[in-house]
Amino acid sequence: MINAAGREIPEYIETYGKVEPFTGAYTHIEGTYEKTAAHMAVTAFSKGTKQKEPKLLRSIEEAIDRTGLKDGMTVSFHHHMRNGDYVVNMVMEAIEKKGLKDIHIAASGLFKCHEPLVRMAENGTIRKITLSTISPGPLAKAITHGKFKEPCVFQSHGGRPCAIEEGKLHIDVAFISAPCCDAYGNMNGAVGKSACGVLSYAYADAQYADKVVAVTDNLVPFPACPIEISQEKVDYVVEVESIGDPNGIAFGPTKATTDPENLRIAHMTAQLIDKAGYIENGMSLQTGAGGTSIAVAAEVGEIMKAKGVKGSFGSGGITGYFVDMLEEGLFEGLLDTQSFDTQAIASVSKNKNHQVMSASQYANPHNRGALVNQLDVMILGATEIDVDFNVNVVTGFDGTILSSSGGNQDCAAGAKLAIVVTNTLKKGLSVIRDAVTTVTTPGETVDALVTDLGIAINPLRTDLLEELKDTDLPLLTIEEMKNKAEEKAEFQHKPVEYTDDIVVVVEYRDGTVIDVVRKPAG
Amino acid sequence: MINAAGREIPEYIETYGKVEPFTGAYTHIEGTYEKTAAHMAVTAFSKGTKQKEPKLLRSIEEAIDRTGLKDGMTVSFHHHMRNGDYVVNMVMEAIEKKGLKDIHIAASGLFKCHEPLVRMAENGTIRKITLSTISPGPLAKAITHGKFKEPCVFQSHGGRPCAIEEGKLHIDVAFISAPCCDAYGNMNGAVGKSACGVLSYAYADAQYADKVVAVTDNLVPFPACPIEISQEKVDYVVEVESIGDPNGIAFGPTKATTDPENLRIAHMTAQLIDKAGYIENGMSLQTGAGGTSIAVAAEVGEIMKAKGVKGSFGSGGITGYFVDMLEEGLFEGLLDTQSFDTQAIASVSKNKNHQVMSASQYANPHNRGALVNQLDVMILGATEIDVDFNVNVVTGFDGTILSSSGGNQDCAAGAKLAIVVTNTLKKGLSVIRDAVTTVTTPGETVDALVTDLGIAINPLRTDLLEELKDTDLPLLTIEEMKNKAEEKAEFQHKPVEYTDDIVVVVEYRDGTVIDVVRKPAG
Predict the structure, then answer these.
(1) Quick one: B243 and B303 in the same domain?
(2) Same domain membership, residue A410 and residue A317
(3) B243 and B309 belong to one structural domain
(4) What ipTM did this prediction achieve?
(5) Which residues contact B295 (CB under 8 A, 6 or more apart)?
(6) Of B24, B165, B226, the CB nearest to A444
(7) Which domain, by its residues, includes A444?
(8) Which residue of A lies nearest to B353 if distances are taken between CA atoms?
(9) Tens digits of residue pLDDT in A333-370
């Protein structure tokens, strides 16, 4: 046959197969991609007129129209602006105004500032939320009380990209807040008046969503260096006045605790890490934010300096304290999925060893090696823990949703030494239970519990018990600790009555269901 | 039902669907990924013993065994070490020694140094090669003369990631040369004794190959910052003595021509670019390497300075000349798929506006916006051009393979002004033909031809002809130029006899077949 270049070519070539003839340079501008790959031609393109349809749109409303967003679809957001985010409300209010219904929000995290979503649950705009991070507040209460038409789904930070990559969580339209973006969709989180450091949780959305919209308040000349998410994944760009208030990123304690009891817990934790043999060259550490966690990091840092130890990496949500440790040479690098404060945000763009990582690289259990598998020591939070070391970070004693699994499951499963650090009493009640209200992190992945009453080692860790048996650490069994905590408690737990309504499905990081949250009665 | 966390959960939840119960933290460590996504759990993992199977293997041989490489499979390589590469030969000789047969090599490029592949074509180790870049030499000759059992396939730089992402080119095992790599597979091209700048052409391989092996001569402590290809995509790491000789990266002219005729061509080209209105703020330019191209860049740079113009970007294979232009503030950024010389290599790691881009971001016609679509001006090479402006960069006058399409098709299709720059005579023969020996880049995408005889504008570009009609540029039609070139020629073309054997299938960037190369007779 003769193709459009006027060349005689066969219709079939042995081993090569059937020949698709060239039909003109601009005739096959749409791909045959499956939805799991980056795809879809951005524009019709005519060489003759040299017209290219611009990606830059005038408004969120136009983006909603152009992406073809319809009733029932899934839209996604990332949470690096945390409680300072404006984009979720901005986009959802535009969706609400258009009268779209039954939207599924797949956000890596939502905060108090997202209270307007409660109204949208009630008026039918939103049917369901899937998330990995949530803070206590009106939205958490609304979920608890079954305001959403469908059960919400809580995933871990690694479970989310796992579900997206495996096609279990299909995103129709991803809206990505971009502190720095060019008109062709290259973006980063490090630069601009709303800089949030990194965009890690949005990487899977950018790669796998059917349509990707960047929302920016800092449109810069092409190219937006350093490029963190690149143009070939982005369909549209919308410029808005502000994507958020960076002052809302850091909240809660970002300095070491000064409370004597918490300092004592931090000291015991650091001693446990040291005596278990984890403070050595090449060690790695993740603590998250919070006063006691930072106090642990501080004390571990002092032991590292005293011993002349150089660690491999600090990871996770990064605070200024870890930036100091990097700059002091205590670690080779930091691997950052979320910059927790201004010092961490500033460090991302100036220190090449402060390295962004995707949520998949961080914690996806099904890829070729997540970072959490390399972690030596992880400091975990908990609202409750039971005698099998199962951890609850989702619900309070009364069944109210307070938080979600975040990186808790991921780091517990990966780290060599996963330590839950907590006071034994909260509101006068013991946090050590026969059975936790909700299981979020399975006990088989939790190695130790450190509280004001001492240190309990998971009996599955016979190696650790052997290693520590001749130390002066205040070891006791978790049953002993539970009994002491109950003696110390001002009140006894009252049983909570639940309805049969499931309000949250708590997934384990591999996508299986580890628990459900039912709506409290009354 | 009761799950492994001891929790009572339903078997089915309305809207959520069938419930997969949690069965233990380490029971679902393998993904259900399709082969088009990053996947496959790296290791079996036991929390109890804390054992994790290391990725670091002892040898290439062990990597071949562990990846399950078998007869007939496809292995891939990238070509940033160019003629200094040791990895292709090292891996293929190990495959040959193991007695594997009928291997398909999918390399982004191959060079003279890869002569051993000719022997492996003859002894049946290799059945076929798919590539985007090749230099004249023994391998090109072997392809010309049909030494491979199956026709080879030539793809453009954008066509290659397009085919990989769309699943048309399936890679069983990717071997990635890594100038800097840690034991967990994070790597970059910027650091180390064999630094090659960037690893752009390997990104699609890392993302989509079934198995990924990093081969490094610079194993560094974790994490290998800046991370260019990250650990979650990499199965194994092999340390070798040397991945190549960086002196083999730069070859051919890397300075502006001093030949008077070529300088005159460069001057006319720069004048054409200027008078066509493309030297203005926000302009972009790609020239590739080569003495005349660099002379064009130099002269365009001078005009930019004289006019006080600040450009948007320079792109493509990056030479020191473009680094100078970036450092002089003539461009906002450089977008680099291949660092052509030591100055470019050094710039990558020190200038954040010298930005690596993947081959897909560069040129894939089926993603959401490749960089080539933003190019204003592209300087193209050609071995022949015909009166319809069709370009041949693959074969010489006698049908011998000299090169491959590289970025020629991509940039011609994308750039607003794609200019072929060449002398009209090569070896005393005219390069302007009624029909080129092989069509690689379709004439409808080529806007102008500049030679020692003047400037011919593609008649499809009526806008350009109008724009230039009152200038003093030496315009003539391509037919006029062809006639003059033939008058000037020392010899006449002799018709070449071909067999029916197809030795190369030349794909257009969208995966269609634009031409085939047949084996010359005799």
Answers:
(1) no
(2) yes
(3) no
(4) 0.92
(5) B256, B257, B262, B263, B266
(6) B24
(7) 260-496
(8) A225
(9) 999 999 999 999 999 989 999 999 999 999 999 999 89
